[in-house]
C-alpha cells in the first residue's frame, strides 16, 4: 500500500463522502468543556440537547468555524482529567483546528493567559501550536503558510506531494507547496509567521 498513488482524483469507489459532518468526543462536564472550546477557542455553542442514546448525558455541539461541528457527550458528575490519553490502535492522536495566520501571536497570548502550555512547530507546509484541552486531549491549532482555496486543497496537496517526491525530500516543505501553487496558477502571498523548530523526529 505504500506505493499507492497520492492524487486528488476521485477514487473508484461505490460512493464518495462530501466532507466532515462532525466528530464526537467523550467529554467530562459541560462547564469545563464550554470554557475551553467556546470561551478559549471561540467556537459557538450551537446546540445542546440530551444524548439520544443515553438521555442522562448532555450532547454539546460547537461550530468549529466553517460549519463543521465537533460534539461532546458530557455529564456534570464527570470531572475533567488531564492525565495521559489512551494510545494505541483506534485511539485519537489529536484534533486539529485551523485559524487565521494573522492571529498567531494572539493565540499564543490567549493560551498563556488561560494557563494552557503549548509548543510551536513549523510543519513544512503549515505551522502549528499544540496544547491540551481540559481532558488532556492534544489539540493542534494550525495555520497555512499560504492561503489555499478550500475547493482546491486536495489538488494543491497532491501536487505538493509529487513535487517533494521528485525533489527526493522526506516530507513536504514550504518550497514544495509554493512550487505547487505556482504550477497550478494559484497566487498566494506567504503568511507572516514566527520562526519555529520543525519538531520532526528523525526526518531531515
TrEMBL record:
A Pfam match: Glyoxalase
PANTHER family the UniProt entry points to: RING-CLEAVING DIOXYGENASE MHQA-RELATED, RING-CLEAVING DIOXYGENASE MHQE-RELATED
InterPro entries according to UniProt: Extradiol_RC_dioxygenase (IPR052537), Glyas_Bleomycin-R_OHBP_Dase (IPR029068), Glyas_Fos-R_dOase_dom (IPR004360), VOC_core (IPR037523)
Superkingdom classification of source: Archaea
Residue ranges of coiled coil: none
Organism (species): Saliphagus infecundisoli
Name of the protein in question: VOC family protein
Region entry Disordered, spans: 1-21
Positions of the VOC domain: 19-144
Amino acid at each position: 500500500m505504500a506505493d499507492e498513488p497520492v492524487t486528488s482524483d476521485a477514487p473508484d469507489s461505490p460512493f464518495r463522502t462530501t466532507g466532515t459532518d462532525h466528530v464526537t468526543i467523550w467529554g467530562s462536564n459541560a462547564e469545563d468543556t464550554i470554557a475551553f472550546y467556546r470561551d478559549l477557542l471561540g467556537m459557538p455553542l450551537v446546540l445542546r440537547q440530551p444524548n439520544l442514546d443515553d438521555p442522562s448525558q448532555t450532547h454539546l455541539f460547537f461550530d468549529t468555524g466553517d460549519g463543521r461541528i465537533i460534539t461532546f457527550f458530557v455529564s456534570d458528575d464527570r470531572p475533567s482529567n488531564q492525565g495521559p490519553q489512551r494510545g494505541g490502535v483506534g485511539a485519537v492522536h489529536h484534533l486539529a483546528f485551523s485559524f487565521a495566520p494573522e492571529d498567531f501571536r494572539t493565540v499564543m497570548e490567549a493560551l498563556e493567559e488561560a494557563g494552557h502550555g503549548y509548543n510551536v512547530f513549523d510543519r513544512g507546509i503549515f505551522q502549528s501550536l499544540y496544547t491540551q484541552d481540559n481532558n488532556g486531549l492534544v489539540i493542534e491549532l494550525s495555520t497555512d503558510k499560504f492561503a489555499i482555496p478550500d475547493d482546491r486543497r486536495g489538488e494543491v496537496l497532491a501536487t505538493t506531494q509529487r513535487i517533494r517526491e521528485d525533489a527526493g525530500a522526506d516530507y513536504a516543505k514550504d518550497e514544495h507547496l509554493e512550487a505547487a501553487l505556482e504550477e497550478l496558477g494559484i497566487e498566494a502571498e506567504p503568511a507572516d509567521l514566527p520562526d519555529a523548530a520543525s519538531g520532526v523526529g528523525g526526518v531531515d
